[in-house]
Design goal:
alpha/beta; 395 residues; three-stranded antiparallel beta sheet; Rossmann fold; 2 domains; formyl-coa transferase, domain 3
Length: 395
């Protein structure tokens, strides 16, 4: 991928998933990422399970193309070092609580007053204003708070979170998009600006369709299992040996499905003659379809459905996905040289520019691997680096 952000310096004060995903994307597009970590322990994700040769896979997934510098942010001299780094950075990204960032001198007003071209991005849990601004938050908590858990899973079963970190990853994406917009603004005006997002805002945005449905109808959305609330049949159906997803979500596809199943009578049934009626009578329709799909294997039905142009899919497992020929054809899983983990592979970003994917320059850094290099690049003298280390402000 072209190094579109080459020459851009990013001061990364984030950890866990949302912030590191955002800054990794900036690095994938060619920016230089200075990742600030706690001496001794570093990013919490380094220790999350499972680990691979001592590194948490969550850290490995979200921290390629970065340089690690260890600074003690509780130390006033460490705080001063970060403030100095911010003066030579183009972008600062943090995921601290608003009150914490301000108390340590990393608030927007403080750092932008020293660097008017700085693009400042804050990723918080509940936003920078409002009664919950200083509460901590994680992906699952925000899935609960935003209502996502209330519509996930099967009816009458205990609460279930979405199985992947949809809040964290989307927050990273929105922060990335905001930063790119701010870079365009700076290119025009010469001035940086503040970008902010929060996990809660992302959760509310994911709920936009269901929230709008409620505002229009007054009906609280409920759990539907694998079904979609907008149309039917649009859910998982049992076959003789497995489950498959079928999405015959318009009248044409529904008629084609009925013909393929040898059940033309369903297309004429007064309960199913429109999408509105099919949604209303979803359970009866599911029973009728499964009486037929359960007589043959999943592979048989998938071949027939795809041949007829009816949207469908197997329900894959991760091991199947890792060896999928379509995934391989798109180059989504790629090898990266990494001495600590010789078999290291990355999951690439889902976008190409000029038919090229992400820059694959450097594997995730060792803790503090680039401390001296980064400080020298920011103008610190050898004597200043030695003094900071003696004060335990850096490691």
């Amino acid at each position: 991928m072209p190094n579109i952000l080459s020459g851009i310096r990013v001061l990364d004060l984030t950890q866990n998933i949302a912030g590191p995903f955002c800054t990794q994307l900036l690095g994938d597009f060619g920016a230089t990422i200075w990742k600030v970590e706690r001496p001794g322990s570093g990013d919490d994700a380094r220790r999350w399970m499972p680990t691979w040769n001592g590194s948490g896979t969550a850290f490995l997934v979200h921290n390629r193309n970065k340089k690690s510098i260890c600074i003690e942010l509780a130390n006033p001299k460490g705080q001063a070092a970060v403030q100095r780094l911010a003066r030579s950075a183009d972008i600062l990204v943090h995921s601290m609580r608003p009150e914490t960032a301000e108390a340590r001198g990393f608030g927007y007003d403080a750092v932008s007053s020293e660097n008017s071209r700085l693009i400042y991005c804050a990723i918080s849990a509940f936003g920078e204003i409002g009664p919950l601004r200083d509460l901590p938050g994680y992906d699952s908590l925000i899935q609960a708070y935003s209502g996502i858990i209330s519509v996930t899973g099967n009816p009458d079963e205990p609460p279930v979170r979405v199985g992947v970190s949809v809040i964290d990853n989307a927050a990273g994406l929105w922060a990335f998009a905001g930063i790119l917009a701010a870079l365009l603004h700076r290119a025009t005006t010469g001035h940086g600006m503040k970008v902010s997002t929060s996990l809660m805002e992302v959760g509310v945005s994911w709920m936009s369709m269901l929230l709008t449905n409620y505002l229009v109808t007054g009906q609280v959305p409920q759990k539907l299992g694998s079904a979609a609330p907008l149309s039917a049949p649009y859910e998982a159906f049992r076959t003789a040996d497995n489950w498959i997803m079928i999405a015959a979500n318009n009248n044409r596809h529904f008629s084609q499905l009925c013909a393929l199943l040898g059940a033309g009578q369903l297309a004429e049934d007064r309960r199913f003659t429109s999408n509105e009626l099919r949604v209303k009578n979803r359970q009866e329709l599911k029973v009728a379809i499964e009486q037929i799909t359960s007589t043959r294997s999943a592979s048989d039905w998938l071949g027939l459905l795809r041949g007829a142009g009816i949207p469908c899919s197997p329900i894959r497992t991760v091991d199947q996905l890792s060896n999928d020929p379509q995934v391989e054809a798109l180059g989504m899983i790629a090898a990266m040289a990494y001495p600590q983990n010789p078999d290291f592979r990355i999951i690439d970003i889902p976008v190409s520019l000029g038919n090229e994917r992400a820059l694959k320059a450097a594997p995730p850094p060792a803790l503090g691997e680039h401390t001296d290099e980064i400080l020298r690049a920011a103008g610190f003298t050898a004597a200043e680096v030695t003094a900071l280390r003696a004060e335990k402000a850096i490691a």
